[in-house]
Amino acid sequence: MSHETLQITWYILIYVLIIGYAILDGFDLGVGILSPFIAKTDRERRTLLAAIGPFWDGNEVWLLTAGGALFAAFPHVYATLFSGFYLALMLLLLALILRAVSFEFRSQVENPAWRRTWDWLFFFGSLLPAFLTGVVMGNVVRGVPLTAEMEFSGSFFGLLNPLALMFGCGGLVMYILQGAIYLTLKAEGELAEKARKRAKKAWIVLIVLVAVIDTFSFILVPQRYLNFSYAPLTIIIPILLVIFTVLTRTSMIKDKPKRTFLFSSLTIASLLGTLAVANFPLLLPASNLAEYGLSIFNASASAKTLTAMLIIVLIGMPLVLLYTIYIHRLFRGKVQLDDEGY
User: Fold this and answer.
1) Beta-bridge partner residues of 286
2) Backbone dihedral angles phi then psi of residue 243, each to the nearest 5 degrees
3) What's the DSSP call for residue 288?
4) pLDDT in tens, 19-28
5) Residue 336 covered by a domain
6) Within a domain: residue 335?
């Protein structure tokens, strides 16, 4: 396999890992963000935690794997991204740690104030990653100031530009929609009904945000749309995005939660797939001089490294997929609470 083919393959694989994370940890984060708004009793809060308890840590493996893949396949991008976005990524890591701890500590003490504290940490530990991953993606689309030495030359507050904040809000609502739909699968009674209502509202807000983001992206970075004219067949992906978005709504109206979750997941996949096509071959565009942008061609590892890593991925990824399928089959169905845990 040629070096160029390996570079393209790894570009696709990294986006596949990002899509896997967005779909799977997306419903975890969405449930956490929704928790203070739909869970009013201790039993309802425990139900939310039990709904995602068996899955959340496995789902985050997709994010860790994406980071590891970026480090191995495109080390220059990894170095620039993690140094330039250092504060944002540290905040994301802190939020994920607090969220993980909240699962374990919440029910260790039977005290309302104690449990409320961990409930709010669970909420903020879900809100921040959802928002910050969107902000990061917004900057990846918009571009950041880079030097000829592939170094980030901007500031943290420069990353909080209007387009990136729009992407942050879009990511937040996308996860809320995924989490609300997931809860219609796992919860029962009033809790499921509240989740269903939130899903319908989130769908509308997401449509509006995607339209606004698309408009501003076209104005600010029109070059991101050129690939669709260079390779007309790629227009299939945004067309699928529209189709899956509509099917998500129609399945929601027909009260088909499994089908709704499937189409919502496919909507996320096609949305991120559209961004992947729009940015190709860039992994981190430069907002100052286009030639400073980091692409799969000027920032990749050697062909030997990419080949060795590809062999590892071809062995490891099926195992991850099998584990994901197995754990979801094992804990399928509605949540059944007992007196222990969460």
Assistant:
1) 144
2) -60, -50
3) S
4) 999 999 999 9
5) no
6) no
DSSP secondary structure letter of residue 282: E
- What CA–CA distance (Å, rounded) separates 303 from 7? 8
- 337: in domain: no
Structural domain containing residue 250: 3-330
Classify the phi-psi angles of 304: left when phi > 0, otherwise alpha if psi is within -120 to 50, otherwise beta.
Answer: alpha
Over the stretch 310-338, which tens digit does the pLDDT of each residue have? 998 888 888 888 888 888 888 888 887 76
- Answer whether 52's CB lies under 8 Å from 27's CB: yes
The C-alpha atoms of residue 204 and residue 151 are separated, in whole angstroms, by 39
Query: What phi and psi, each to the nearest 5 degrees, are found at residue 255?
Result: 55, 55
- Cα separation of 5 and 1, whole Å? 6
Measured between alpha carbons, how far is 326 from 178 in angstroms, rounded to an integer? 21
288 Cβ partners below 8 Å, 6+ apart? 145, 146, 153
Q: Which secondary structure element, helix H or strand E, spans residue 294, and what is its range?
A: strand 294-295
Q: Please report whether residue 136 resides in a domain.
A: yes
Give the number of domains in the chain: 1
